[in-house]
């Protein structure tokens, strides 16, 4: 999530974190840190976070595989106040769905943050593949049935009308926007029940919500339990540390994914690192890897709205630069595979062994660089999704979709500046496998 990022970004710059603006346009290569570079095959039309663009801002993708016709699979992606976008495998727009309007003039509008999929969700009208979305603006989940044969578009909203806020007690609290944020779905193999795991904006709380069918064919949800991750940490030198942020903000989670084979949730606490947790939110969380900035003291200046970073005590990790975002799972048929995470602060992607028995060992990384002057790479990546399965002739080796937080070339606005543009890049997964030697 790129909003309210100034304190973190300033601290990163003080520490000398390198942000690469120009990436090698070769099909695959290596940067000066030894990481290979892959390039996208295509990109979605740019989204613009202004009035003319419907306040649309690309955030998080999910890949739905059409089992009957894999070449007609879809990418479903959030655009915040712009709602949902559905793309085909050529990155062309198939459907656009608006976020809900605000309940009243002074209330927060709908704002779609993250999306994940459930295959074969039980409903009163039969099993259905659905997209589950976190509506940060309304502090609720929205559920959409996926049916590619439906006239007018593949998605239909089947959210029950009487859904309750995920975290807030009333509309005033919703308007403060400490609301539903990151999201991952989970199907418990032992019970057949389906769940959504949801994080809370500017807080460390995670909630487990069971998705439940209604008699009318819609879907609602019910909270099962919550878990609070740490907001402060005891360092080896005996001091207590919390990441620098605006007053009242705690280190939030956004990127999340569940390994369906083990029921393991991986949660990216943006300024901290990656946690491994039981998906039912029981047991003790384990910190798999930390961001480089972990342990660095900072003082927030209310006048400049920036953080002044102190000396780095050297307690951080080596592979992730805050924010850690875009967690997704590269699954292999034999049970092997990789956890992929976006290292947003340095425009790289890190790969970790999927096996818990291997303690999710780091396996390497890569960048998504520019393919040409008009097809750029991925910068400041928020969300990512990977599917290791054939998707017709277009992607016979699978697909990686990553959010691009700085779409180029830039388009001028009416005031002599440029319009803020974001989008999604489609990358042949075979290129990632070859470049990263997976």
For the secondary structure, the number of strands is: 31
What is the rounded distance between the termini? 29 Å
Sheet-strand content, in percent, reads 35-45%
Q: Please give the share of residues in helix.
A: under 10%
Mean pLDDT: 92
Report the uncertain regions: 1-28
**What's the shape?**
globular
Record the strand order, biggest sheet. 1-2-28-27-26-25
Write a structural description.
The chain is about 5% helix and about 40% strand. The protein is mainly beta and about 450 residues long. Mean pLDDT is about 90; it is low at about 1-30.
Short description:
This protein is mostly beta strands and 438 residues long. The protein is built from three helices and 31 strands. A hairpin with a 2-residue loop joins β9 and β10.
Summarize the topology.
Blueprint: H1 6-14, E1 28-30, E2 36-38, E3 42-43, E4 47-48, E5 61-64, E6 74-78, E7 84-87, E8 93-97, E9 112-123, E10 126-135, E11 140-146, E12 155-157, H2 171-175, E13 180-187, E14 194-200, E15 205-213, E16 219-228, E17 233-234, E18 240-241, E19 253-259, E20 264-269, E21 273-278, E22 286-290, E23 298-301, E24 306-309, E25 324-331, E26 337-343, E27 348-353, E28 362-368, E29 384-387, E30 399-404, E31 421-428, H3 429-436
Parallel strand pairs: 2-28
Antiparallel strand pairs: 1-2, 3-31, 4-31, 5-6, 6-7, 7-8, 9-10, 10-11, 11-12, 13-14, 14-15, 15-16, 17-18, 19-20, 20-21, 21-22, 23-24, 25-26, 26-27, 27-28, 29-30, 30-31
Give descriptors for this structure.
40% strand; 5% helix; 438 residues; six-stranded mixed beta sheet
């Amino acid at each position: 999530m790129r909003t309210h990022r100034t304190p973190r970004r300033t601290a990163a710059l003080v520490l000398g974190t390198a942000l690469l603006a120009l990436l090698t346009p070769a099909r695959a290569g290596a940067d000066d840190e030894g990481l290979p570079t892959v390039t996208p095959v295509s990109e979605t039309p740019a989204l613009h976070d202004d009035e003319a663009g419907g306040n649309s801002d690309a955030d998080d993708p999910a890949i739905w595989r059409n089992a009957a016709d894999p070449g007609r699979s879809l990418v479903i992606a959030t655009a915040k106040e712009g709602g949902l976008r559905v793309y085909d495998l050529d990155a062309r727009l198939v459907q656009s769905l608006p976020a809900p309007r605000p309940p009243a003039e002074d209330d927060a509008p709908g704002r779609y943050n993250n999306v994940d999929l459930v295959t074969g969700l039980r409903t009163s009208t039969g099993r259905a593949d659905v997209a589950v979305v976190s509506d940060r603006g309304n502090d609720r989940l929205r559920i959409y049935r996926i049916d590619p044969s439906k006239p007018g578009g593949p998605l239909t909203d089947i959210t029950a009308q009487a859904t309750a806020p995920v975290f807030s007690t009333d509309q005033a609290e919703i308007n403060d926007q400490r609301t539903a944020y990151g999201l991952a779905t989970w199907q418990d193999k032992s019970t057949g029940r389906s769940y959504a795991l949801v994080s809370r904006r500017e807080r460390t709380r995670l909630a487990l919500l069971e998705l439940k069918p209604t008699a009318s064919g819609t879907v609602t949800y019910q909270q099962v339990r919550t878990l609070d991750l740490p907001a402060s940490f005891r360092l080896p030198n005996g001091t207590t540390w919390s990441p620098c942020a605006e007053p009242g903000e705690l280190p939030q989670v956004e990127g999340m994914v569940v390994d369906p084979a083990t029921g393991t949730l991986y949660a990216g606490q943006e300024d901290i690192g990656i946690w491994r947790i039981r998906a039912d939110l029981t047991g003790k969380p384990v910190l798999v890897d930390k961001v480089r900035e972990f342990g660095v003291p900072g003082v927030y200046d209310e006048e400049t709205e920036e953080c002044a970073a102190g000396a780095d005590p050297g307690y951080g990790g080596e592979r992730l630069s805050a924010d850690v975002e875009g967690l997704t799972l590269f699954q292999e048929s034999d049970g092997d595979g990789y956890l992929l995470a976006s290292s947003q602060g340095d425009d790289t992607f890190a790969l970790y062994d999927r096996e818990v028995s291997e303690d999710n060992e780091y396996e390497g990384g890569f960048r998504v660089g520019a393919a040409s002057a008009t097809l750029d790479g991925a910068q400041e990546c928020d969300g990512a999704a990977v599917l290791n399965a054939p998707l017709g002739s277009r992607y016979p080796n699978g697909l990686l979709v990553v959010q691009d937080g700085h779409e180029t070339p830039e388009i001028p606005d009416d005031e002599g500046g440029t319009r803020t543009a974001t989008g999604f890049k489609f990358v042949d997964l075979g290129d990632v496998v070859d470049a990263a030697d997976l």
